[in-house]
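Worked Example 4.2. Consider the chain below.
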Amino acid sequence: LGVDGTNGLQTEASYEELVKISGNPRYVLNITKWSTIDEHLHDVVDVLCPECTGDITFIIETSERIGYEGVEEIKTAVINIANKLSIGKEESRVALVHFSSPDERSDVLYYLSDTTSNVDFDNGVRKLDWTKVAGISDLELGLKIANDKVVGKNGARENSPEIVVLFARGVWDQSLPEPWDQVSKLQQSSTIYSVRAPSIDYNDDVLKRISGNNRFYTMDNYMDVATDVNKQIFSCRETSTTAPPSTTTTHTPFP
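Applying the procedure from the previous section yields the following structure tokens:
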């Protein structure tokens, strides 16, 4: 795999030279001076392992505690992460679940089977109107919808790893059911990445118990999710059809 331009290794080579070295122009990536290999992992996956795909479900909290601006920030984060993935019917597929309470304010906005392209998913996410879905936080409901309607269903594929990216506060209204049964079910089927949603009240310990400490992020470093998801998808090149190792990570027991 050749790199055209100046990268972190401080190597420079012309496009023509790199084509000769690699033997295939598809194996030459054009990386700008100030970018890194990690930022181009989806290109690497496309070139070296076109059959490597993932089924990625985004679950986002749209509660009143997060507010309009916070939800807009989450939507932007989801779009930015998705744009670092290669999305399509024969590539990685994506879905989006949004949740708050009462129940009618939580739903699947985008199924895995709806996947056509990055642009189509981008447009779908932008259509989510916080004023129509805001309510109290119901984490259990959001995870239940993902378990019942999305993960492993409606366009999911047998040989693609199930990946969940959760944007939430890790807090729920005390009048509502606790989420642990749904968390346990989701952990059995998926690798979970959690991102602390923008809010003045949150519980990082809950989010870390859902995803594991090594897959917990904040809004300051959420783009690392894209890097890590691409690494997981690419790792399936070695593991073939077996489940990725991270899906069997031991989690702290729930009360």
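The mean pLDDT is 83. The radius of gyration is 19 Å. Compare this with Example 4.1 before moving on.
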